[in-house]
Design brief:
The complex is a heterodimer of chains A (790) and B (141). Chain A has 790 residues and is mainly α. In chain A, strands 1-2 form a two-stranded antiparallel sheet. Chain B is mainly alpha-helical and 141 residues long. Helix content of chain B is 67%, strand content 9%. In chain B, helix 4 packs antiparallel against helix 6. Classes of the chains: A mainly alpha (790), B mainly alpha (141). Chains A and B meet through helix 29, helix 32 and helix 33 of A and helix 2, helix 4 and helix 6 of B.
Chain lengths: 790, 141
């Protein structure tokens, strides 16, 4: 299974090259890999159907017990089949959809990377790998939404999706970590057996909250739903694949996967049911309001995800059965409808429902396939959508608050049916409205294959209830720790409440469709009256965040070197003086007279030179004199080191002083500083006081240290060992390059980094001007993907 | 600063200082000296040359970008820790060879020396890069 995932990443690397070589047939060529992976996973279908679970493990970070382990059971198998199967069709579709686009190779690369990450996500057994793959799907989604990166709307949508799903990713990491620490196990396989420990844990509430935030952001549940419609900025194959059939289902997958661990409690049922129902309602209402075909589909996707979450929340066997069936049905019909809308867009140049009409004669195959998909979406009998809806109603009727839940499900389904008809009927029925193109025809095979196959499968699966029961429902329910209810999904259960609800839904849906134009106007007016939505809230939040950041930045980073130095030296002075003020460190009684008596004439003259340097430095009128005097002072100190028997130290100090003078002078001329100091008297007073505090602190510390006998153990060790062990007599150098070589390695890395940073800072200004010039030159070359212009 | 005397003398002094720098580097293991000090001497030499003849003259003389020198030095130091792996000792454990040249001359070679040379190159490269950047505009590519 690891090789299946890696093959996706591998092909992603090769895709741009293949794209250049293969030309127009590149979609068919690249589609071979997902198709092959589909076959690879399909071979396991019968083994999994009989209750098998396949596990594979490769050590990844054995030190901390993280393995790259994978688990193939009913749940992951169906997801893997959807990802690879629809993936193959999408790749073929994209080969045509983006034909001739400058960055088609890059697009395939992103798409295949996403496919591999998504496969990893559903196959992962280790929770840390699960998190890693989860984040990778967010990242690839970001890249794909922002594919037309020259459009501001695309960039905003990509960033928004990344931030919202990234927030969920962090919640997931926190959630699985808490869960791992509580149970002590880090693999899903073991977690599935420790459900009791998690549910009885005092941290259960926190775990559920974190996991639910992760799932809700990924699966676009209210109030996080706003990123998904905005993500429709991506090219249509991406919308069909990521933002309908696969990635947004990752949250649903997570909830299904963790149902045996976290599910069944009152809190779990309440949160999932309430938020699911709210999302279902919001999604359908907003879908009716849209007139862009793609946005209608996007909002119904939000609604469908809400329905799935609601069913998982109810959690009874029949509810999960409904969730499983609806998941399958939704991937088929929504994938098909998105691809059909993309094809329509390519052929007619518009996705606006008001602009399209009367296309049934010109595009009969497209029309037929759109209707097949829409009927499945509306839950019309013999389609798989019907099976799903039957189970859904059986579930809501059997649940607590059955009247409310059934009503919500019925209204939701009815509105979705109306929306489906708006997408699949409206553009094809009535009189021809697109007059721009005379000879409209069905899109070419590569654009039709995917939607047709998916739409027809919706019908086939609806009829083949037996295999669906044993190959899809039973293994998936088994993975969730539930045994299927006895009457398998079937087309006919006799006349009962469920059938009546089903029929009522269809009537209601048709009725809504008749007045959909009026409803749209009404909703639009109502939404305009409200004016505020989560999308606006996101903007306000981001603006607030940036305001806060720049506010703090202005305080912490005023851009004045003097302020930074004051802060640094104030902290230094505090650190030096604090022990004497608060810890009562004894100073002892230093014998200055004796020390002075021992001094030679050379010592005293060097000291005198240092003092003279310091005095002139303070009195200096111009900066240049001050810099030179600093050098004189430092050199005098170096002389003292030499006299006290530290030639190495002295030597280095001399060189540093010389270079300081040179570099400071250069800085002064280069940065065009004033020749004289421009500080006000009060500023000078503050700086002077601070310097004095630091000086007193150092003097006190040195005095205190010299009152204690020095611990000579280290010095003796190095004196002995440097010649015998390291074959060197210069102890300082031996310590630097041998005993403590790793420290030195760190230090020279810092030296090099500081050099890089200094150069970047010095040359910052001219470079910024040059960059601005470049941007202006690039601007005129903005190009758009075919079919994406508005 | 670019007076005639300065320009005439600077190359000679620079060459002498460079020689001295190498000397200090080589004697560092037994006498006062070492990579860091030697590097600072070399930078002083180059800075002097730059003050006298201009930053571009120094760049021409170095012929590669000073930061490349620094990078090379870091590479030297990093890789000087690797030979110890061959004898199953921890990273950066010192290894010694004595090269026998002729009858009487023995030259001890060691990984700490390679390491010290890396330090020397990093100091020379990084600080020279800063000084040159300050001394004059970098030529446009």
């Amino acid at each position: 299974m690891l090789s299946a995932i890696l093959s996706g990443f591998g092909l992603a690397i090769l895709a741009p090259v293949l794209n250049r070589c293969a030309g127009a047939k590149v979609g068919w060529l690249l589609g071979l890999l997902p198709a092959g992976l589909f076959v690879y996973f399909a071979r396991y279908a019968s083994a999994i159907a009989t209750g098998g679970v396949l596990r594979q493990s490769t050590p990844w970070l054995p030190q901390i017990g993280v393995d790259l382990s994978f688990r193939l059971d009913g749940l992951s198998l169906i997801f893997a089949l959807l990802i690879t199967g629809i993936g193959a069709l999408i790749v073929v579709y994209s080969g045509r959809y983006l034909a001739g686009h400058r960055h088609q190779g890059r697009f395939f690369s992103f798409l295949l990377m996403f496919m591999a990450s998504m496969l990893g996500l559903v196959l992962a057994d280790d929770v840390i790998s699960l998190f890693a793959f989860w984040e990778m799907t967010s990242l690839t989604s970001f890249l794909l939404i922002g594919f037309n990166h020259l459009r501001a709307a695309s960039r905003r949508a990509a960033m928004q999706a990344l931030l919202v799903t990234g927030l969920g990713g962090l919640a997931l990491l926190a959630g699985v970590t808490v869960m791992g620490l509580e149970t002590g196990v880090w693999s899903l396989s073991q977690l599935l057996e420790s459900g009791g420990i998690v549910r009885d844990s005092p941290l259960y509430g926190i775990i559920v909250t974190l996991v639910v935030v992760a799932a809700f952001t990924k699966s676009a549940q209210t109030p996080f739903h706003f990123w998904l419609p905005n993500a429709m900025e991506a090219p249509t194959p991406v919308s069909a694949y990521l933002h309908s059939a696969t990635m947004v289902k990752a949250g649903v997958y997570l909830l299904m996967r963790l149902t045996p661990v976290l599910g069944g409690t009152a809190g779990w049922i309440a949160i999932l049911t309430v938020f699911g129902a709210a999302t279902l309602t919001t999604g359908t209402l907003l879908a009716i309001r849209q007139s862009d075909l793609k946005l209608i589909l996007a909002y119904t996707t939000v609604a469908s995800l809400g329905l799935l979450v609601m069913l998982i929340g109810i959690g009874s066997p029949v509810a999960l059965e409904g969730a499983v069936l609806y998941l399958l049905a939704h991937a088929l019909f929504k994938g098909a409808l998105f691809m059909i809308v993309g094809g329509l867009d390519q052929v007619t140049g518009t996705r606006d429902i008001a602009m399209l009409g009367g296309l049934r004669r010109a595009m009969p195959i497209t029309f037929a396939m759109a209707m097949l998909a829409a009927l499945s979406m509306g839950g019309v009998p013999v389609f798989v959508g019907f099976l799903a809806k039957e189970s859904i109603y059986r579930a809501t009727i059997g649940a607590d608050f059955s009247v409310a839940l059934t009503a919500i499900a019925m209204i939701g389904n009815a509105l979705m049916f109306a929306a489906a008809l708006a997408v699949a009927w409206r553009p094809f029925a009535g009189v021809k409205r697109v007059e721009i193109l005379k000879n409209l025809r069905d899109p070419p095979l590569s654009l039709l294959l995917g939607p047709s196959l998916l739409a027809c499968l919706g019908l086939v699966f609806g009829i083949l209830t037996g295999p669906i029961g044993s190959f899809v429902i039973a293994p998936m329910l088994a993975a969730m720790g539930v045994t299927p209810t006895h009457p398998h999904a079937a087309l006919w259960h006799g006349v009962n409440t469920v059938l009546v609800a089903s029929a009522a839904t269809m009537v209601l849906g048709l009725g809504t469709f008749m007045i959909i134009a009026r409803l749209r106007k009404g909703f639009a007016a109502a939404l305009k009256a409200i004016g505020w939505g989560p999308d606006r809230g996101y903007d306000q939040f981001m603006a607030g965040l940036q305001g806060l950041a720049s506010g703090i930045f202005k305080i912490v980073q005023p851009g004045l070197l003097r302020h930074y130095l004051i802060a640094a030296y104030a902290a230094f002075a505090l650190a030096l003086l604090a022990p004497f003020l608060f810890l009562s460190v004894s100073l002892g009684t230093p014998d200055f007279a004796a020390a002075l008596g021992d001094s030679t004439l050379q010592d005293i003259s060097a000291l005198g030179l240092a003092i003279v340097g310091a005095v002139i430095l303070l009195a200096a009128k111009t900066r240049l004199i001050a810099i030179v005097m600093l050098g004189v002072h430092g050199s005098a100190i170096a002389l003292l080191f030499l006299l006290f028997g530290a030639p190495d130290l002295s030597f280095t100090q001399f060189m540093v002083e010389i270079l300081s003078v040179v570099i400071l002078t250069l800085v002064m001329t280069r940065l065009k500083l004033d020749a004289v100091d421009s500080r006000t008297p009060s500023e000078r007073l503050l700086d002077g006081g601070l310097s004095l505090a630091v000086a007193i602190g150092i003097a006190l510390v040195l005095t205190a240290i010299t009152q204690h006998p020095l611990d000579m153990r280290l010095s003796e060790f190095f004196a002995q060992a440097s010649a015998t062990l390291a074959h060197g007599r210069n102890i300082v150098n031996v310590i630097l390059v041998d005993f403590r070589a790793l420290d030195t390695l760190g230090e020279i890395t810092v030296v090099m980094t500081a050099g890089l940073a200094a150069i970047a800072l010095i040359s910052l200004r001219p470079q910024r001007a040059a960059k601005q010039r470049d941007v202006e030159e690039i601007q005129p070359h903005i190009d758009l993907a075919p079919g994406e212009e508005r | 600063m670019n007076t005639l005397i300065m320009r005439a003398v600077a190359p000679v002094i620079t060459a002498l200082m460079a020689l001295f720098s190498v000397f200090v580097l080589l004697r560092g293991h037994n006498e006062p000296g070492g990579g860091f000090i030697a590097g600072l001497i070399m930078v002083s030499a180059l800075a002097l040359y730059g003050i006298a003849c201009g930053a571009s003259a120094v760049r021409r003389a170095l012929s590669i970008h000073p930061l490349c020198i620094a990078g090379l030095g870091l590479l030297f130091s990093l890789s000087s820790g690797l030979p110890s792996a061959l004898v199953h000792m921890p990273y950066l454990s010192a290894q010694w060879w004595v090269a026998q040249i002729g009858e009487a001359t023995k030259i001890p070679l060691s990984t700490p020396f390679l390491f010290d040379m890396g330090v020397w190159l990093v100091v020379v490269g990084s600080i020279t890069a800063i000084v040159l950047e300050l001394e004059g505009e970098e030529e446009q590519d």
